[in-house]
Amino acid sequence: MPEIVAAGPAPHQILTRITLRTRGPGLTDLTARIAEDLRAGRAGDGLVTLFVRHTSASLTVQENASPEVRDDLVDALDRLAPRDASWRHDLEGPDDMPAHIKAMLTGVSLSIPVIGGAPALGMWQAVYLVEHRDRPHEREVALHFIGASRPGG
């Protein structure tokens, strides 16, 4: 039987958007921005859901210590969905269809427990937006928290 940590009245909600500009293929750390939005919205214990509003970018939780991990992940995705595979869909260039495949493989949403107003990530984990297109893009991530509000002012 799970331990009940908190029970209370109607849930507290936060709904916001995180907008960022990417530099091309790679991972952009969103962890600090998520934590900032949870603090500003007075989040307590609950669940934060993140959803990237694009079909050629994705979200992931990955290691935050070694930059080589992020580079290797981009390389691995390039091997899984190469640009030169004779894709039928190439309206926006050779990176178009591979970007859609990479987003499908890695996912467009995440749910992360929030404890004491902070994402309950492990010591070496961070939340990243993964840009799959060659050019820089403006990307938007919807953030929705539901749970208890943080006590106090």
UniProtKB/TrEMBL annotation:
Coiled coil: none annotated. It comes from the Bacteria. InterPro entries: UPF0047_YjbQ-like (IPR001602), YjbQ-like_sf (IPR035917). Belongs to the UPF0047 family. This is Secondary thiamine-phosphate synthase enzyme YjbQ. It comes from Methylopila musalis.
